Amino acid sequence: MNDLINLFDFEAAALALLPAGTRDYYRGGAADELTLRANRDAWDRWQIHYRVLRDVAERDLRTEVLGEQMDWPVLIAPTAYQAMANEAGECATARAAAAFGLPMVLSTLSNRPMEDVAAAATRGLWFQLYVYRDRGVTRELIGRAQAAGCRAIVLTVDAPVGGARERDVRNGFSYPKDLPMSNLTGAGAQFSNPDLGEGGFVGYLNRMFDPSLTLRDLEWIAAETPLPVFVKGVVRADDARVMARHGARGIVVSNHGGRQLDTAPATADVLESIVQAVGPQVPVLVDGGIRRGTDIVKALALGARAVLVGRPLIWGLTVGGEAGARRVLELLRHEFDIAMALSGCNRIGEVDRSLLARAGELPPARG
Amino acid sequence: MNDLINLFDFEAAALALLPAGTRDYYRGGAADELTLRANRDAWDRWQIHYRVLRDVAERDLRTEVLGEQMDWPVLIAPTAYQAMANEAGECATARAAAAFGLPMVLSTLSNRPMEDVAAAATRGLWFQLYVYRDRGVTRELIGRAQAAGCRAIVLTVDAPVGGARERDVRNGFSYPKDLPMSNLTGAGAQFSNPDLGEGGFVGYLNRMFDPSLTLRDLEWIAAETPLPVFVKGVVRADDARVMARHGARGIVVSNHGGRQLDTAPATADVLESIVQAVGPQVPVLVDGGIRRGTDIVKALALGARAVLVGRPLIWGLTVGGEAGARRVLELLRHEFDIAMALSGCNRIGEVDRSLLARAGELPPARG
Amino acid sequence: MNDLINLFDFEAAALALLPAGTRDYYRGGAADELTLRANRDAWDRWQIHYRVLRDVAERDLRTEVLGEQMDWPVLIAPTAYQAMANEAGECATARAAAAFGLPMVLSTLSNRPMEDVAAAATRGLWFQLYVYRDRGVTRELIGRAQAAGCRAIVLTVDAPVGGARERDVRNGFSYPKDLPMSNLTGAGAQFSNPDLGEGGFVGYLNRMFDPSLTLRDLEWIAAETPLPVFVKGVVRADDARVMARHGARGIVVSNHGGRQLDTAPATADVLESIVQAVGPQVPVLVDGGIRRGTDIVKALALGARAVLVGRPLIWGLTVGGEAGARRVLELLRHEFDIAMALSGCNRIGEVDRSLLARAGELPPARG
Amino acid sequence: MNDLINLFDFEAAALALLPAGTRDYYRGGAADELTLRANRDAWDRWQIHYRVLRDVAERDLRTEVLGEQMDWPVLIAPTAYQAMANEAGECATARAAAAFGLPMVLSTLSNRPMEDVAAAATRGLWFQLYVYRDRGVTRELIGRAQAAGCRAIVLTVDAPVGGARERDVRNGFSYPKDLPMSNLTGAGAQFSNPDLGEGGFVGYLNRMFDPSLTLRDLEWIAAETPLPVFVKGVVRADDARVMARHGARGIVVSNHGGRQLDTAPATADVLESIVQAVGPQVPVLVDGGIRRGTDIVKALALGARAVLVGRPLIWGLTVGGEAGARRVLELLRHEFDIAMALSGCNRIGEVDRSLLARAGELPPARG
Lengths: 367, 367, 367, 367
Description:
Chain A is of the alpha/beta class. Chain A has helices spanning 7-17, 20-27, 34-45, 89-99, 114-120, 135-147, 166-171, 200-208, 215-224, 237-245, 267-278, 293-301, 311-343, and strands spanning 46-48, 63-65, 68-70, 74-76, 104-106, 125-129, 153-156, 229-234, 250-253, 284-286, 306-309, 356-358. Chain A has an eight-stranded parallel beta sheet with strand order 4-11-10-9-8-7-6-5. A two-stranded antiparallel sheet of chain A has the order 1-12. Chain A has a two-stranded antiparallel ribbon with strand order 2-3. In chain A, helix 1 packs antiparallel against helix 13 (311-343), helix 4 (89-99) runs parallel beside helix 5 and helix 12 crosses helix 13.
């Protein structure tokens, strides 16, 4: 693992280790994977017009999102079925996140029970919510998350139906039967078998999750829990603004990692318009293709309060379990720290929009 | 055939099955095939800024074009000599179209007689018209189409002379002598032999079809038949507007699938300007490179009333005859349905222009 | 030769036939060959927004440039040492040009004497002039061209010094000693040996040609001869306008086929600005990368009166001598004729600016 | 060496000769090397709209920067540890520079003592300064440079911490122990061992150099020496203007050759904005990717007073020691001379902004 020196190295190593079905499930995007690639490329198209002579001897990377403190502006993105990568699954990820001062967002489709994960996630656990057609199950999930000490609900809204995961279709991939959906107990236990019916994950999703969600459901969830509700999967400024008026306390700009609607825009391209639309009272997070410390600087410069990182943790888990996940975070934090210093920024608040311009564009004569 | 999960798969499978001459005839474009590729690429350059929380549990994909009802906004594009792909030819295509609730546009150069095709096309048949120098033949074709129950005439205007089909020239390709041009009987029978003279298809076209067509001919055809006349092959807004004033009831934005004038613009790039020019009373259809369900959403968002899909049906026919054609439509309909749901649209009328922006462009802060 | 169906085919065939030194001399550009490629690519970036229903049964492709009649708007560009491609050299080219109703521009560095070429070029010969440091030689060349019946002087201005022809340097290429510079007789005979000194062609050019040319020299040449003087090698609108004021009767937009200053702009990109600058009284011609009939339509739409085509004639000569050159012109004329018809244009005068837009750009709603 | 005819040839030859660690150290950039490539590509994206008929028989390429005379507008960029390429190291480079009438900028991390290099650099030596945490060492370096006859101080400001030199990390590269840091004697002797501690060059840099630099330090250095101080590593117009107010006499637009912050902008893209911001009293130099004579013309047209060239000298040293370095400069000077002539410029002062436009952009109708 010592010869893996950036997140791309971890990805390559993990892809070589995983069986084809799991590998493609984790790495894949919808259809032609144009959005999957666009997410990544969009960060590279932004360039950092760094400042110099700013005394960057002591950087302070801490930030907070609605009161949640984090040592640097990253959260672990929710990804399903982490035990396919490593037996310890979400617990290993949670311990790694905590070790690096980060909160984690736990998927509804976690293999490890949220209580166990919450115990490991000592720097904060948020709960990602899929809304089941059976609202009793949904209510139970929210209540249980609250009881487990989760500090926010992250409502996924970009998956009313499953995306065209063609890799999974070709592989005939479905979640392994021997791995539990450990959050689905009680009323939800009936839905805890991923092998229930046809069509793999997408089939499950289409049968279980409610495609009829509207703003009313968002309001219902916001009323159901004292936890702040983030809406995840937004790419439009008007959508974001409306959601903020109907109960969303924060927005996660996301296209589900390119796994839902192919040719959806890259998150880095729509982020700023959403930040401007909702205003400073509503924190905006972003995910999709963040692999370099400089990407985080760029997200902040475009107005994000923090970013979410998903697949790289899976690669870390695959390569080395918790130690692998830690190493991924260590590398990313180091890169971010260096990127801040070289950008001339000591604190998160010093990252401003003037740091960015599109690649190849000529800047104005500022100053 | 079960392992073919999208239209590109069908294309690859069909290309492997067809003899070189036929394969290149179907797949090829003019000259350097820049327009052929541009047609496809242009759809990908549009990105869908999808909406969320819109209750997409029940989608209604139906639409109509000048009274023609269709279950989803697709028509089968006219392509010649479908019996080269499968013996049942246009009849198989017609049955597949009908099974999926779609009208079909039949080529003048059909192998199966239009009456047979009309009987199979129970959800509607339109007739694509090439104007023969011999206007008696032309009049006969129109009358026969009308009698056979065709519900619209689609006048091709982008082929006053044949394009530079270099693949066909290299292959020495001409239509097989043993396949009849079954629509050319009576006065037209003299022109029913594709082997009549030199130069393959383009030679036939140049000898038979009238390069002197003007708006007067459009007026003549519109007066000749009570059927609505669509003009197919338009890429300019001014042309479209003038045609609407001279008898065209609808416009098909098309560059003949990239087979006529190379470096003509991609249809996805000119569509909107034409829609705006002719106004809401004149339905605008579009073809060229539509292969994904998301492409259809994009065409609608740019103002098209429906799209035409051509080559993919040929690939379906080649791979599996009528069953192959059905499977192609089944895949495309499923993709379109999913794309609508993930775009936050329940009905065709909910697809609006705000869903689209160019790849890499930064959207305004809407809302 | 029958299997060569476009100009690119001729290029590939000729490259395979020629010895490396000659091949690279003809095909090569300066330095990284960015301008060489840009010339070609720039034509492809323009797209033709063709018109339909225009009665294109009878096309008339004729035009004239300052009284010079040509059957279609093409001249043969001056290229040196055509006898390396075929023994008959410039005479073969001239016969081919005449057979297709075109004037030819003969290089100062012709292998065949201009009187012989003039006799073969029955549709008009123009003389390309390099200005020797020895003005007596220059005056002699002009006088001789006039006496031979040349109808215009084309003064090359983009070669005050030789470009960085790296292919030639690597190959140690120089003109063959056994091929005469047949225009250099009388006073010029002393300069007729290409092997005179070091550095190959560029060495010769630097020793012989005058880098001190100014507008005064242009005025001198214009006064020296009653023939109209075209200035060739202009890429700036201001330069073109000034030259028109100092004796130039016409402008040839050219960057010497990408052989002089690498990273000079593509001619297709600067053509229009020059046409607008000099106004309708000064005909503007253009060369550089014209290989398709559609390229000629585009040049006309941008305001060129005609185009010059160079290397493709060399490829024709190489492959089949005069017959090869004829075939190249036959293919190009056919393509141009078809391109005119498919663009909806019957006469040169019908080609207008509205036919063009940049690839991928969205057109306005015209009409 | 005779078959190496441009700077890219020298690069390829040197890369083949060097051991992997040294090769990658010299050639490499930070992280994904996007800025490394962008530096190069940005020059190519500018095109030269050359002038003609300007009498370029006698070019005068001389210029000056704050009184420093140079035969053509190039300085040798500071690069560390040149003795890895050739034993004579910086002395060889200095002799080559002097032979071609150029000043050299010597790195703090020179292998040869600055006094020796100054003796060789008869056309001027400038001293590149890294500020050590130990200001006594820094003061000693400045004083020694002054005493050695250096004529300017070039303060590097884009390396408060080391960049992500991933090639070096993979190679486990560190400076060879047997090569001295010859400028670090006296108080600095304690820091002269590159093997002092972990992390290779970047580790050394992070331990030794002061990340807390501010405008106060710039003022201190400017007050410490009568020599003009250039600030190197600036990519923002506002930064440049502020520095000019706090003691900088000149600016070097640079991103450290793409070795520090990846996705920093290409220098060719920000140069002009900086020139405009600081005004004509503050000379602006630029480095990054300059490999062709035309690149120098472009830099001047964008307002640079001169350019710095770094890695190509290393390639020259590697291939042929001082003779190799000379040959590199000879090739580049020749290219620049030709580029000036073909641009229609006789003197540096004739290079103006109108010579440039972006590739593919349509110029206005000037003149």
